[in-house]
Design goal:
With 488 residues, this protein is an alpha/beta fold. 37% of the residues lie in helices and 14% in strands. Helix 1 packs across helix 3, helix 7 runs parallel beside helix 8 and helix 13 packs parallel to helix 15. It is globular, with a radius of gyration of 28 Å.
Length: 488
């Protein structure tokens, strides 16, 4: 950092009038340098300015600066002022908050798994749940966000917690056209991704001890969100038609389902099963959270009508996200709720984060109103379809009868069960990683022990890398060579 161009840091020093003022200033500045808060090349305030802020004599600050300079922590340069010297080795761990051994989270939080670390970058990346950032409409998005920020005076106060009215109206129209969701602007609440939507629904509908039905295998973050609120998750099996409605306990308060593209196995919920779930909800009074996972990327078959469109009693809360269509880092999601829940959900959203990013919401509205979101979806659908077809061909060519492909007509991944006699999935994943291939085992999605297998995503990996990646995965499925014992 060049001290000639570096701005002066806004330095906080707290002095106790009962102590030695110069010594206190010296100690706090030295600690800030050693723990990395003050970095090499950063310019400190002039002695006269810092003395004025601290309401002490200039000699007090001058003495502290001189002592630090003598020990090699600070340098002075004519015209540049006083700055942190190069070569001072700061503690790589940085400053830490107190350990706080006396404070403990509630038991429900202690039992939740830690968020997974970002996956390591591997040459053949079949990670699940990630879109290709290279396909994002960067120019169109950048222009619209810039237009929102350029030449406009921000309104005083805070935007509405449920989101910008124009953006909610745009998303209601988009969902109505693209997914047949029955909603107006007042039914839509914009959220920070689908995960916040699940959290808000849980806050409004669940009390500690309530039972929540989740698919097994299913989406672990949904299960964790409800358990963090004190609810008890009840795993319910899925079959070729989706959630097994006959296995639902009668006393559950809420059911979380992914009917358009079951996560992680991939099958859609049949119309017969959807109607059975709605009828069950009417009999028991339970709510249904329809997580419309990956519904935008449908490759085969007729479009499936969402549960929300079939619902006539107002028992379904529809949850969606733009993380796959656009970018996960934008954190743009939504929920569509029955009118009876909207006031409470708005209040929960206000308490959760006050409001979302207004400029991004308005840029999204323009993307929808200009027809660019629909055009973007059509474009990326073609790209992902090619990758999906290449993946199917490569699996058939290299893996043969060692895996069983599960049917899926939508989404950005395919799931596979291991055929009998193959290595267990953890061993397959370990060997694949050693060969530069990232695959996702199915075990973490099961609440109870399930059939071993793995999922292969094609959202990130370029089409020309798919065949080689599957060839390497086939090598990972080969049993290790037997170790020959020497003859005696």
């Amino acid at each position: 950092m060049d001290p000639l161009t570096s701005p002066t840091v806004d330095l906080h020093v707290s002095l106790d009038r009962r102590g030695r003022l110069a010594a206190d200033a010296y100690r706090q500045l030295r600690e800030a340098i050693l723990d990395g808060r003050l970095r090499a090349g950063e310019r400190l305030p002039a002695t006269r300015e810092l003395a004025r802020r601290l309401d002490v004599s200039r000699n007090t600050v001058l003495h502290a600066y001189q002592r630090l300079a003598a020990e090699g922590f600070l340098k002075g340069r004519a015209g540049a002022g006083t700055y942190v010297a190069e070569g001072v080795r700061a503690d790589a761990r940085g400053r830490r908050a107190p350990a706080g051994a006396a404070l403990r989270p509630r038991p429900s939080w202690r039992s939740l798994p830690a968020p997974p670390a970002p996956p390591a970058a591997l040459p053949y990346d079949f990670q699940v749940g990630a879109p290709d950032p290279a396909l994002f409409p960067w120019d169109a998005w950048r222009w619209r966000v810039s237009r929102q920020l350029r030449g406009r005076r921000a309104r005083a106060g805070y935007p509405p917690p449920e989101g910008d009215p124009g953006a909610r109206a745009a998303m209601a129209r988009h969902l109505g056209v693209a997914r047949s969701v029955r909603a107006g602007a007042d039914d839509v609440i914009l959220t920070s991704g689908a995960q916040q939507a699940l959290d808000l629904v849980g806050r409004v509908l669940l009390a500690p001890g309530d039972r929540v039905a989740v698919e097994d295998p299913g989406y672990p973050p949904a299960r964790a969100a409800f358990e963090a609120l004190g609810a008890r998750a009840v795993p319910v099996p899925v079959d070729a038609e989706g959630l097994v409605v006959d296995a639902l306990p009668a006393d559950v308060r809420l059911v979380h389902v992914t009917p358009s593209h079951q996560f992680p196995l991939g099958m859609p919920m049949s119309l017969r099963r959807r109607q059975a779930l709605l009828a069950w909800s009417e009999r028991t009074g339970a709510a249904i959270v329809e997580d419309d996972y990956d519904s935008e990327f449908r490759f085969d078959g007729r479009p499936l009508e969402p549960l929300q469109a079939l619902d006539r009693q107002g028992r379904v809360v529809y949850v969606g996200s733009l993380s796959k269509v656009l970018l996960p880092t934008l954190r743009l999601g939504l929920l569509v709720a029955p009118a009876s829940l909207v006031p409470a959900l708005r209040a929960a959203k206000a308490l959760s984060d006050s409001h979302g990013p207004l400029e991004l919401q308005r840029a999204l509205a323009e993307l929808v109103d200009d027809g660019l979101l629909a055009r973007h979806v059509r474009r990326v659908l073609r790209v992902y379809r090619e990758r999906r077809d290449r993946l199917a061909a490569a699996v058939a060519r290299h893996l043969g009868d060692r895996v069983i492909a599960l049917p899926a007509s939508a989404g950005l991944h395919r799931s596979f069960h291991l055929a009998g006699g193959c290595a267990d999935e953890a061993e397959v994943v370990r060997r694949a990683q050693a060969l530069g291939v990232a695959v996702q085992p199915l075990a973490p999605y099961h609440a109870r022990p399930g059939r071993p297998g793995f999922a292969l995503g094609y959202g990130v990996i370029p089409a020309d890398r798919i065949d080689e990646g599957i060839r390497r995965l086939a090598a990972a499925l080969e049993p290790p060579p037997a170790v020959r014992r020497p003859r005696r």
